[in-house]
Amino acid sequence: MITTTSDLAQKLRQAGYKLTGSRLAVIEVLETHPEHLDHNQILAAGKKIYPHLSRATVYRTMELLVELDLFRPLYLSDPTQRFISASGGHHHLVCSKCGAIFEFENCHADQLSRELAEKYNFEIRSHLLEFQGICQNCR
Amino acid sequence: MITTTSDLAQKLRQAGYKLTGSRLAVIEVLETHPEHLDHNQILAAGKKIYPHLSRATVYRTMELLVELDLFRPLYLSDPTQRFISASGGHHHLVCSKCGAIFEFENCHADQLSRELAEKYNFEIRSHLLEFQGICQNCR
DNA sequence: CTAGCTGCAAAGACTTTGCAAAAGT
DNA sequence: ACTTTTGCAAAGTCTTTGCAGCTAG
């Protein structure tokens, strides 16, 4: 019986999944990194915690977390799958040249969100507002 | 000397590229389909116009159009690369279950766009506002 | 104990590239 | 003519899967 204070771990266990070393390593990485990590980054960071961690398990664990609606895949300016927490909004500026990402808050999508939910009879769970352009350094 | 009224074709020629049957087929597909097409869809539609068209040429032509800043890659809810015209805004609702996409207009990002451009010294070229959730049919 | 989980390596899917032939200008 | 472009097939990259052994509960 592994004990942990992790919120994600509790939810995994509640859903009937085992808390293995691999899964706990992945979860710890996700909980300590607010960025949008991809599989490679999760694997690299996870191996520092649990060196035996394999790539296939990272793929399978993230698939599981997405199924449980705890995380959500995100695609920025390339086909790399990244992960963000499943709820709320995500707002960034993406540089088309160098790929740099700047986060911002306070987008005003809530009002629009309600209007669209009604008009399309759509249950909105999260949103993404992305501005593309050229950053300071690349100009 | 191939003649065409196509706007995209003019721009390609002006940039010093040859107007081949393959390229004209790809361009015609893009100009007659407002949706966000992926490579497969462009290939399939292009073959109806120019049956000899190959997959590699579709990849190369789209790469070219992106380089010339005429199109822009877009990633929705999967790693498939799709293409949209390079300017302006794009707004949709994406269903996480079935992948259905609903377009809408009138997002109010212009004001925010100006604020961010100034704050981050960023040259904004286009934006994407995407709401994720569950559509009418999947509920 | 026993079902679920893991790592490995092989298979699969998608994208890119080298090259000789073909085609636009 | 001469260079760019094309189609093909091979190579490359990323993701998924089958399987035998391992582990949490």
What do these coordinates show?
Chain A contains 5 helices and 6 strands; from the N terminus they run H-H-E-H-H-E-E-E-E-H-E. The first copy, chain A, is of the alpha+beta class and 139 residues long. The first copy, chain A, has 2 domains: 7-74, Arc Repressor Mutant, subunit A, CATH 1.10.10; 87-133, 2-Layer Sandwich (Dna Ligase, domain 1). A 3-stranded antiparallel β-sheet of chain A has the order 1-3-2. In chain A, strands 5-4-6 form a 3-stranded mixed β-sheet, covered by helices on one side. In chain A, a hairpin with a 7-residue loop joins strand 2 and strand 3 (82-85). In chain A, helix 2 crosses helix 3 (39-49) and helix 3 packs across helix 4. The longest helix of chain A has 13 residues, at 55-67. The model of chain A has no long low-confidence stretch (mean pLDDT 89). At the A-B interface, helix 5 and strand 6 of A face helix 5 and strand 6 of B. Chain A binds a DNA duplex (25 and 25 nucleotides) through residues 1-2, 17-23, 39, 52-57, 59-60, 79-81.
Give a quick rundown of the structure.
Helices cover 40% and strands 24% of the residues of chain A.
Count of helical stretches of chain A: 5
Number of domains of chain A: 2
Q: Secondary-structure element order of chain A, as H and E?
A: HHEHHEEEEHE
Largest sheet of chain A: 3 strands, antiparallel
Low-confidence stretches of chain A: none
Per CATH, the class of the largest domain in chain A reads Mainly Alpha
- Biggest interface, which chains? A-B, 40 and 40 residues
Task: Going across the biggest sheet of chain A, name each strand in turn.
Answer: 1-3-2
- Quaternary state of the chains: homodimer
Q: What structural category arises from helix and sheet content of chain A?
A: alpha+beta
Strand-residue proportion of chain A: 15-25%
Q: Looking at this structure, what is the CATH superfamily of the largest domain in chain A?
A: Winged helix-like DNA-binding domain superfamily/Winged helix DNA-binding domain
Q: State Rg of chain A.
A: 17 Å
CATH architecture of the largest domain in chain A: Orthogonal Bundle
